[in-house]
UniProtKB/TrEMBL annotation:
Residues 320-372 form a coiled coil. The keyword tRNA-binding does not apply. Keywords: ATP-binding, Coiled coil, Kinase, Nucleotide-binding, Serine/threonine-protein kinase, Transferase. This is non-specific serine/threonine protein kinase. It holds the Pfam family Pkinase. Signal peptide: none annotated. GO terms for cellular component: cytoplasm; mitotic spindle pole body; nucleus. GO terms for molecular function: ATP binding; protein serine/threonine kinase activity. It catalyses: L-threonyl-[protein] + ATP = O-phospho-L-threonyl-[protein] + ADP + H(+); L-seryl-[protein] + ATP = O-phospho-L-seryl-[protein] + ADP + H(+). It comes from the Eukaryota. Its EC number is 2.7.11.1. GO terms for biological process: chromosome segregation. It comes from Tetrapisispora phaffii (strain ATCC 24235 / CBS 4417 / NBRC 1672 / NRRL Y-8282 / UCD 70-5) (Yeast). SUPFAM superfamilies: Protein kinase-like (PK-like).
Length: 410
């Protein structure tokens, strides 16, 4: 395993040297445009992870830099709703870069949408709000480079974020890049075919196209993205900003409700025209006006009126969804704690029973020995068998009981 090559610029990285043989490689779970994704176990911690194998041999220097950028971005972005980047390593001979990341066992939003489509059911509204709130929490970290303050009450006024250093624009928000994980940290789906979507944690991932900008004023002008979710300003080659992620997010949430994207067309030109016009149908009547309104506010062709991540997080329904997620988490922690207490109680009860049984046994033996000793004494024999202590009788390291057996165990 070589660690240096002229083709890759490692200067942006701060990483502890990973050891290739610390990972046990398991099955492949998918393939992307750059290579395969496999499950691996980090042997020292027994942690299940994914390893993204990226062949860089055929890449030009721009693509390699993009790859490095993804790693650099991911290693900085630590937030509960962002797929965690653990480490990286590479094999220079095979020209493969290995990225070790959090494993999300519950699939992604494209699978969830497919599930509801197949079942001919709408995604429950509560689930939609929960997903929207969680993606906004992830985007807050990306767009402002800060941790989102926790919510004490739904009426809390949020302090506006700072100037935004090291902000990140995802640039490729789509259902297939939004992963789902479980609350209990048990990342094995246990062979379960069905996922309880009311209980999943949303994780924003696949930052392959993300662009890290030094400040919020500096914009990227190049775009590579998925047409269905592409914002009109990007289609018109205008500077790319965090608001373009908001447009894409609006399209993703629309699709979760309607089970199809807001703009559909037979060809690219038709799609482009529809996106630029910004006209689309209401989400099904099954959903509230509040949800419809927030989706419409995000899929707004006017950048001046399209809300930012911060503004969306102020929405009372988003705050309610956040609070509800917090309470569910709290309830889950309490239930786990209760289970732990029940187990401890059972253990203590068993120890108490074992202890009493042992004491009872010792007491009986002690009494028999004592009676025998007294009888021997009355018969005029030498009182050699009368124990001074249980230890004396059994040869055990037990001191004479310090309490009165009769009153204690009546
Ligand atoms: N962290 C992860 N946890 C679980 N599954 C993952 C994870 N990352 C990727 N996958 C799965 O691996 C497969 C390949 O993912 P990858 O992101 O490499 O490519 P893609 O998004 O399908 O395509 P593209 O490379 O064009 O973006 C997908 O099925 C994806 O769901």
């Amino acid at each position: 395993m070589q660690r240096r090559t002229n083709n890759i610029d490692y200067q942006n990285f701060v990483h502890q040297t990973p050891k290739h043989n610390e990972y046990q490689v398991l099955e492949e779970i998918g393939r992307g445009s750059f290579g395969s994704v496999r499950k691996v176990i980090h042997i020292p911690t027994k942690k299940l992870m994914v390893r993204k194998d990226i062949k860089y041999g055929h890449m030009n220097s721009k693509e390699r830099q993009q790859l490095i950028a993804e790693c650099a971005i991911l290693s900085q972005l630590k937030q509960e709703n962002i797929v965690e980047f653990y480490n990286w390593d590479f094999d220079e001979q095979k020209e493969v870069l290995y990225l070790y990341m959090e494993y999300c066992s519950r699939g992604d939003l494209s699978k969830m949408i497919k599930h509801y489509k197949q079942d001919h059911k709408y995604t429950p509204e509560k689930i939609v709000w929960g997903i929207l709130a969680q993606i906004l929490m992830a985007l807050y970290k990306c767009h402002y480079g800060e941790d989102l303050p926790s919510l004490v009450s739904i009426y809390d006024r949020m302090r506006p974020p700072g100037k935004g250093k090291n902000i990140v624009i995802h640039r490729d928000l789509k259902p297939g890049n939004i992963f789902l994980s479980s609350h209990d940290g048990n990342n094995e789906s246990g062979g379960k075919a069905t996922v309880d979507y009311s209980e999943v944690i949303v994780k924003l991932g696949d930052f392959g196209l993300a662009k890290s900008l030094e400040t919020s004023i500096q914009f990227a002008t190049t775009y590579v993205g998925t047409p269905y979710y592409m914002s009109p300003e990007v289609l018109m080659d205008q500077p790319y900003s965090p608001l373009s992620d908001i447009w894409s997010l609006g399209c993703v949430i629309y699709e979760i409700c309607s089970l199809h994207p807001p703009f559909q067309a037979k060809n690219y030109t038709e799609l482009q025209n529809k996106i630029k016009a910004g006209k689309f149908d209401r989400i099904p009547d099954y959903y509230s006006n509040g949800l419809n309104a927030i989706i419409h506010s995000m899929i707004d062709i006017n950048l001046k009126t399209r809300p930012s991540t911060f503004e969306l997080l102020q929405d009372i329904q988003i705050r309610t969804a956040r609070k509800s997620l917090q309470l569910e988490r709290f309830e889950k922690n309490l239930l786990d704690y209760e289970k732990e207490l029940v187990n401890i109680e059972k253990l203590l009860e068993k120890q108490a029973v074992d202890y009493e049984r042992e004491v009872h046994r010792l007491k009986e033996h002690f009494e028999i020995a004592l009676e025998q000793g007294i009888r021997d004494a009355m018969d005029g024999k030498k009182m050699s068998k009368v124990p001074d202590s249980i230890q004396g009788y059994y040869g055990k390291t037990l001191s004479k009981p310090a309490f009165n057996w009769e009153t204690r165990y009546q």
